[in-house]
């Protein structure tokens, strides 16, 4: 840029970078964030034909990031080619038309942004699932080597019931193929399996579950009674399953509580409180924010005959 060009956009560069109070200070005292914001501001104000961005959008507060996205959208409308180097799938899907997936410098796949983001997430999910299954196998093998097991007392687990009539034997998660899994994927099938043993004949016990985040925030819960299901007379060993055709939990770490109550939900036979963790990962579909993906449908024009009032 010539000096005349710099002078013409100097004030815009300083204002965009948000460093007006420090513009007369030596650059060497700038923080790393200030330095990168200044460099980004210079780059977008030189009227580029091609702009290469390397994770710069992650720098700065919410206000600066919004300015970056707004300005980049304006550059796209003007026909500027923007090349983004990023690890953020949200950036790929919202900013990019096409994408190339590199792993240690080796091209893995090239295509539309949505397809590449989905392929990458599938690979990550597969690797994590394999690692967790390997850890579970190693833990099981280590457990079989123990010659003595410590006695579990009510005080140790904070519960006062231990299944005198019905006890929960085991709880595990499985996918659509029936394979045991340690992770779930938003939008894909998941089943929660509850293995139980009834020591005597029990009529219509109520099976229930509750989901918390790892920070103790309740997310959802239900039971067979609320679902209108009568479990009938139960005796001996059996399995009760909670089948979800599409897991609606959004990505995050959750803990399941599983319980069995009498048919009036007044007496607890057995309960595993927040004892069954489930890591939920993103699948191939776009997701919203929060804890759950609501099963809702958008209707153009609204779903009723309501007519907005004129102003």
UniProtKB/TrEMBL annotation:
It comes from freshwater metagenome. This is Unannotated protein. Gene3D superfamilies: abc- transporter (atp binding component) like domain (2.70.50.60), P-loop containing nucleotide triphosphate hydrolases (3.40.50.300). It holds the Pfam family Wzt_C. InterPro entries: Bact_Polysacc_Export_ATP-bd, P-loop_NTPase, Wzt_C. Residues 164-293 form the Wzt C-terminal domain.
